[in-house]
Amino acid sequence: MINLNLNGLEIEVEAGTSLLEAANFYGVEIPTLCYDEGLSSYGACRLCLVEVGPEGRSRLVSSCTYPVREGLTVRTHSNKALKVRKLLLEMYLATCPSSKVLQDLASKHHITEVRFNVKHEECILCGLCVRMCHEQMQANAIGLVDKGDERRVGTPFDKKSEECRLCGGCMYKCPVCTSRCQGPQEKNVLCNACLNLSPPCTEKYEDMMCFMDPCVACEIDSPGNPV
Length: 227
Prior knowledge:
Blueprint: E1 2-6, E2 9-13, H1 19-25, E3 49-52, E4 59-62, E5 73-75, H2 79-95, H3 100-108, H4 128-136, E6 143-145, E7 152-154, H5 169-173
Parallel strand pairs: 1-5
Antiparallel strand pairs: 1-2, 3-4, 3-5, 6-7
Helix pairs in contact: 2-3
């Protein structure tokens, strides 16, 4: 067993466990787009970034691919991690604003503006569809091709794949295939219909003080509230 510190709590998990799995086991939710329990970890979306290491010498790592280590200090909701997650979500929303999954995550993280040019594309390159096709369906009908700005999901030589069984597993896993609530003719980039309160604790402390879902803002109007 491995002992480590998770958000100030001393925990114990099995060797080989990822930081994301350890956090989930102890009830700490970390957002992710490219992770699935039934598939191999890929670390593409980077939303699951957490801060590891002692204060002053810490760094951000993708929790889905980073294994637990003895004595490791982990902060899942530090100000640094939260700021990067919000920036990444803004970028994903600018790429695929039609995705309900992204809109829900944006509301959950209190994102009220998108500062990037909107592209209205249909893929965020999370790789879930490719891994689903390869690992679960044993088909290898699709894959990630090209590099950099040209990277995309496609079939070999861009021809109709004879391996594809039209199972729909790729679409089932895709986080941008679900349309946002207002339908395809939405007026604004952001929906914010389910906008959560921004946690006020992060304005005073370096980390979120709790992991309520949704954030109840520490009952900010209640007498004796320390925030």
